[in-house]
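Annotators were shown the component list below and the corresponding predicted structure, then asked to write short factual statements about the assembly.
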Amino acid sequence: MGLARPLQQLIQELGRLPGIGPKSAQRVGLYVLRQPEADIRRLAALLVQVREKVRPCQRCGNLTDEGLCPICTDEQRDSSLLCVVEDAVDVLALERAGYRGRYFVLNQDPRRGRQPVLEDLDLKGLHRIVSEDQVREIIVATNPTVEGELTARFIARAMETSGVRVTRLAHGLPVGGDIEYTDELTLRRALEGRQTL
Amino acid sequence: MGLARPLQQLIQELGRLPGIGPKSAQRVGLYVLRQPEADIRRLAALLVQVREKVRPCQRCGNLTDEGLCPICTDEQRDSSLLCVVEDAVDVLALERAGYRGRYFVLNQDPRRGRQPVLEDLDLKGLHRIVSEDQVREIIVATNPTVEGELTARFIARAMETSGVRVTRLAHGLPVGGDIEYTDELTLRRALEGRQTL
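Structure shown to annotators:
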């Protein structure tokens, strides 16, 4: 096809990554040629290292290259708060938002489809943290989708007898959003959840 | 920041690649965790191999991992046709379009800004191929931009005394495009270049 074979193969492999179309793959392929060799070697080594070393935390399911993740071992965390998220990237988002409790990451296999497989949820692991950390509140931060809603209700029901308060992230207008372009369901939720000024 | 350090670093490095935003970088980072280890090793090895081995062809500037690129050494090519392109990705596009002549890749350093540095153009290399291959027509396929136009005219002028025909790719409506949304310059060019049915 005209280009050097390793470059063609690289472009093909890059194009298989999620969110990277054929155009981006080409651009990245050519970019690699122009970067210092040390930078590309570092990127390559990181790819292998991540694949080899990073695993879900034994306790909370967050991603770590040790047995326990940095959040589970951090004594400064407010262990009475436990935030349940679908995926480890959600941990990043909540950290950025200033949350300082601990997490429980569901890690549902995305290859099993969009439907949450409720019987696969590690309720035992969740109960274990709740009792070990003397959790007072579980904040369910699953995505605001039908599936996330289902999972949230399932968890709330499973925790009913534990005496722990189970809450859900508020629905409403995104900051910087536009009422005119907000879908009616979100707007209805925003109305229902209105706050006194 | 909550996630395993190597994964954080990988996400950061991925986010530096062109066309990959922070969200895509996160998605790719997590995707790496779920792929077979052999696949990730292959991707990492390809990155290093491309950076180490792939160079511009000594003759035409196309990218290759040998001295001469596969197109320069392909005897089946129509060597009387020479297509001048800005970048090696343009070779891929023209190959897909069915072009079967040879190429001359300008490889202008994109870090030098958008302005073509005409004095940097390898006119000597171009003249060499023209005489070695007994080229009859040079098709200038620089991008349809002000800079590409400038480069095209510069090449046409440089070839004036050589007796070689210099042509330019046609301007006009993109196939599948919409006249209503076509900019006026393109439409004017499409009118000027109209063809008998």
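Statements collected:
1. The helical segments of chain B are 5-15, 22-34, 37-53, 88-96, 123-132, 146-158, 184-192.
2. Chain B touches chain A through 59 residues (CB under 8 Å).
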